[in-house]
Write a structure and sequence with these properties.
mainly alpha, globular
């Protein structure tokens, strides 16, 4: 997938999931899911994030397996998931995010929800890349690739699906927000 498709796929699927669980995400959560859906491509100098962070992008590209290497692997994802689990456990024990009431924008806390949204976006990026013929080396540095569909990253069908997923997410979000008003 390309950058805009990752944004649409991550944000659209996030809006669908949050609508289904009855949560209305705030602007910080939406920004976090958008950033998370782009950040794995920090390992590619010509990606959106790679152009924003040229030094970091060059480092990952040169020393961490190239594009779809370390930043697309279980070596990074598994610690993120453990961190998310720890974060949820800490939240459940009433410590709050950084223990600061100033960051508590809701019952759950802005930081807590933003981190979960970021991880959601990150994982959506990996799923999106696995949906292409280029696949995903989730067990990097091993060469085996996970490929979920026979579609190319620039496929019209994949782009159609991605943008309709985004539109469906926006529609579900607007509908659930409207239902909350009445």
């Amino acid at each position: 997938m390309m950058g805009n498709a990752h944004l649409a796929f991550g944000t659209g699927s996030f809006l669908i999931v949050t609508s289904l669980v009855g949560h209305t995400p705030g602007i910080i959560e939406l920004a976090a899911v958008a950033l998370g859906s782009l950040i794995p491509d920090a390992d590619h100098p010509k990606s959106k994030v790679g152009r924003w962070l040229p030094g970091i992008s060059h480092f990952f590209y040169s020393f961490c397996g190239g594009h779809r290497g370390f930043t697309h692997s279980a070596l990074l994802v598994i610690p993120m998931l453990f961190f998310a689990g720890w974060l949820m456990e800490e939240h459940n024990s009433q410590l709050g995010w950084f223990g600061s009431d100033a960051l508590q924008g809701s019952v759950y806390g802005v930081g807590y929800l933003a981190m979960l949204a970021f991880i959601f976006g990150f994982l959506s990026h990996l799923i999106g890349d696995a949906m292409t013929t280029e696949g995903l080396r989730i067990l990097w540095p091993l060469k085996a690739k996970l490929r979920l569909t026979p579609l190319r990253a620039d496929s019209k069908l994949l782009n159609f699906f991605t943008w309709w997923l985004c539109i469906a997410g926006i529609g579900m979000h607007l509908y659930s927000s409207y239902q909350a008003l009445i």
